[in-house]
Design goal:
Elements (H helix, E strand, L loop, with lengths): L47 H4 L2 E17 L2 E14 L5 E7 L8 E4 L9 E2 L10 E4 L4 E5 L2 E5 L2 E4 L2 H12 L2 E13 L3 E13 L5 E7 L9 E6 L3 E5 L8 E5 L4 H6 L1 E6 L2 H4 L3
Antiparallel strand pairs: 1-2, 1-9, 2-3, 3-4, 4-7, 5-6, 6-9, 7-8, 10-11, 10-16, 11-12, 12-13, 14-15, 15-16
Length: 276
């Protein structure tokens, strides 16, 4: 699976804040599977601003729910904020979730690779009714108190602004556009994707990239995130009639663009056709 390389120059507009730790008592028997007694007391644990060079807090309105499976049991835990922790180079090291009721230790989503996985936005955006859920295609490293494990992880938000800002902080880019695609095809690679979101991101240096997940059923090797710099688009042909596809011709700058040659995109609604 390929990874999207974020623009490290993008600076978040969120303010730097100090992380806190909940000291509420854990009473749920099921939750005790996760939150075992930490090696140190909550008061002795260093806070995020002491561990990392840059910590940005995303306050959630009113909260979000993280979902995962451990020991065959599904957990859905609500939190009121996410601390985005980076090192001195600007590399994302972990997400620390806090403000959860009855949770003694923070929930930590750690990143150990130099290339970060792309936050996968589920359910194409075609109305206001779909759940705002961001997941990850590969298993993620999670830590609760002294327990570290790998699991499939997803974040479900209560409002659109939180969902967007979460993606921007992870990708180090500004979300300029998002539209639901019913289908995207290319001449060289065949079917690219069905029922996906098309995102256009802009880095701090102004570089814009079109990003989507190619979930083609033709071959496992074709399943990957595809990022296309907008300066690699040779021409753009809007539809003459509503409901017709948008055709994007590509300059063969990279191997994958040479294979694709062009993209024919069917959006899920008329608004998507006029914003590419």
């Amino acid at each position: 699976m390929s990874h999207f390389v974020p623009d490290q120059e993008w600076a978040s507009t969120s303010s730097r804040r100090q992380s806190t730790v909940s000291t509420s008592t854990v009473s749920s028997a099921s939750t005790s599977i996760l939150f075992q007694s930490p090696a140190t007391s909550p008061g002795s644990r260093k806070q995020s601003w002491q561990l990392f060079d840059d910590v940005v807090r995303l306050e959630l309105n009113p909260h979000m729910t993280v979902s995962f499976v451990k020991s065959g049991q599904l957990f859905k835990l609500p939190y009121t904020y996410i601390d985005v922790c980076k090192d001195s180079t600007g590399a994302l090291k972990c997400l620390e979730l806090g403000g959860g009721l009855g949770q003694q230790a923070p929930f930590v989503h750690a990143f150990h690779n130099t290339k970060l996985p792309v936050p996968h936005l589920e359910h194409p955006k075609d109305s206001t009714d779909f759940p705002l859920r961001v997941s990850f295609l590969e298993h993620q490293t999670v830590q609760t108190a002294s327990v570290i494990f790998m699991t499939q992880l997803s974040y479900r938000f209560e409002n659109w602004e939180d969902c967007i800002q979460f993606q921007e902080l992870l990708l180090c880019s500004k979300m300029m556009f998002i539209g639901g695609m019913a289908e995207a095809k290319s001449k060289g690679r065949g079917e690219e994707c069905i029922s996906q979101n098309l995102r256009i991101l802009r880095g701090h240096n102004g570089r814009r990239v079109m990003l989507f997940f190619a979930n083609s059923q033709r071959s496992k090797e074709l399943k990957r995130y595809v990022s296309i710099p907008l300066n690699c688009i040779a021409s753009f042909k809007p539809p003459k009639k509503p409901g017709r596809p948008v055709v994007v011709d590509l300059n063969p700058n990279f191997e994958i663009l040479a294979q694709m040659r062009n993209l024919t995109i069917h959006f899920l609604d008329d608004n998507g056709q006029s914003h590419l």
